[in-house]
Amino acid sequence: MNNDYTLAATLLAQLDDSQIWNPITINPSVEKKFDDLVKEVQDSKNWPQERNHEKGKLLEKLVGLILNQFQVATIDSDFTIQDNQIDHEIIFHDQYNANFIKQVGSVAVCECKNEKSKVDVSYMAKLIELCECRNARFGIFVSLKGLTGKGWIHAEGKRKKNFLRKGIGIIHFTFDELKTLKQNNFYTLMKHKFKLLVDEVDEEFDDIYDAGQHTKEEKLSFDNRIKHNIKELLRLELITNDDYTNICKKVDSIYKT
Hints:
The chain is α/β, with parallel strands linked by helices.
């Protein structure tokens, strides 16, 4: 029995992305459903407010179709746990133990918002809460547009701070990105987006520890970058106000031109 499990895990680990997530165009029936749902979601942008619930379910249906192309996972959709409504949950099979799954865990929670506005902090906080409720270290947001904010503020900042504090990685797909899935692989994009999150968080804090030599021009931009990072450390309550003042003075003494 153990040998069978090991063999299955080994074979699964050798699969490429197109075998993990079946491309939309492989199955004509799936491709037609995909095209029809994309058109309906596109048309729903102009629906009146009283059809908002119907609009939401439409995007959930499209995302459900996309997620169900995974060959190594079970998809549970539209269920309630402890008064929390969950659009989709991905549970990767135990035998599938690829490096990406080792990083993000075997459970992912997916939320969908078919609204004209960008995803704000409150929606991001809700997805994080749902991930915690389901013991998931990975979440996916799907919406018509992107996230509010950039850097370390608003929804974009919330997901980065959450990743640092709690280790829950949240990625985001726009409707326009979903429309490209006849040319692109969803699993490949998932891995790419998670890597971007990790790299962005690492890069934006690396400057604090960079002791290399810089030209005058580099020092000018470096000075601004490092002070931005110090402010974010203060915002994250990782340093005190006194620490912030003292570090800024130290930065000025080293990089003053």
